[in-house]
Amino acid sequence: MTKRVRKAVLPVAGLGTRVLPGAKTTPKNLLNVVDRPILSYVVEEARAAGIEHFVFVTGRGQGAIEDYFDANPEIENALEAKGKLDILAEVRRDLMQPGQMSFVRQMAPLGLGHAVWCARDVIGDEPFAVMLPDMLMAADTPALAQAVAAYEQVGGNIIVVEPVPEGEAHKYGIVALNGRDGRLTRMTGMVEKPAPGTEPSNLFISGRYILQPEIFGTLETQARGAGGEIQLTDAMASLMERQAFHALEYEGTTYDCGDKLGLLRANVAFALRRPELADDARAAIRALL
Ligand code: G1P
Fold first, then answer.
1. Whose CA is nearest to atom 15 of ligand 1?
2. Is-contact 131 8, C-beta < 8 A?
3. Which ligand 1 atom sits nearest the alpha carbon of residue 134?
4. What are the start-end ranges of the E strands in 139-276?
């Protein structure tokens, strides 16, 4: 029996350099895709996978994230008084239950591995999910639910991957596999930001993970890697000497919202996925083209 995955770590401390100045006063993961912040979609994806507790790893100036998931009586009462109950329901959809979210602070941008390590005390001794909120995933079965299903099948650690666009492998973590076993394959290695031409496969780590708590011990002493940062990929690679890792090629499409064009594509794609908006969105896009 595998232990259930109940908690998710969401590293949100990045500066959002590629989406400035929009991310100057609004945390980048609160930028909108259609009418909801990026984090709203990610939390919805997590809930669909059974996540009950959210650990946000924040940096300075990101208090708005906490407020977003809290009640706002002023807005809610005003909507109620005006009878705008449909909007009220949309506003309330993202509310957290009391005690369902924790915030830990990453004081300096030392890397993704360091950010995840900051959550160690809140996670404790159980398997957990890591979700990189920049990476918005559109899928019929939400991406994290696909990862949890894979975890229930094989246990250990699961890394969601997908084919890397031509010439972009050096920007990501790339997994090494010995052959393929359908969509879920035991891994043999992984490398963060390989030099062009040295990538061990065409599958990149796309931002959803199920990890065992032993990763925290590995992260504790993890040396700096690519970009001078403490890399989660390096810690996973060393944990792999003792624990199984499987790569799951998920079914869906990823949009990198940390980037102008990715954010634009996500806006278009998510508008087209909304039944009540799709026709108007299509007409508006056609008119622009
Ligand atoms: C991080 C991870 C990398 C992964 C990527 C996905 O890199 O370290 O393995 O492929 O996210 O977006 P970053 O984007 O922080 O450089």
1. 112
2. yes
3. 12
4. 157-163, 173-177, 184-192, 203-211, 245-249, 253-256
Parse the chain into domains and list their residue ranges.
7-288
**Which of helix, strand or coil describes residue 81?**
helix
Q: Cα–Cα distances in Å, from 208 out to 86, 150, 234, 247, 257?
A: 32, 12, 16, 11, 15
Q: Among 108, 122, 114, 147, which residue's Cα sits nearest to residue 218?
A: 114
Determine the residue of 205, 249, 259 to mutate for testing ligand 1's pocket, defined as the one with the most ligand atoms within 8 A of the Cβ atom: 205
Q: Which atom of ligand 1 is nearest to the CA of 204?
A: 10
Q: Which residues contact 50 (CB under 8 A, 6 or more apart)?
A: 4, 5, 6, 145, 148
Beta-carbon count within 10 A of 247 CB: 27
7-288 belongs to which homologous superfamily? Spore Coat Polysaccharide Biosynthesis Protein SpsA; Chain A (3.90.550.10)
Global pTM reads 0.96
pLDDT in tens, 97-120: 999 999 999 999 999 999 999 999
The distance from CA 49 to its chain's CA centroid, rounded to whole angstroms, is 13
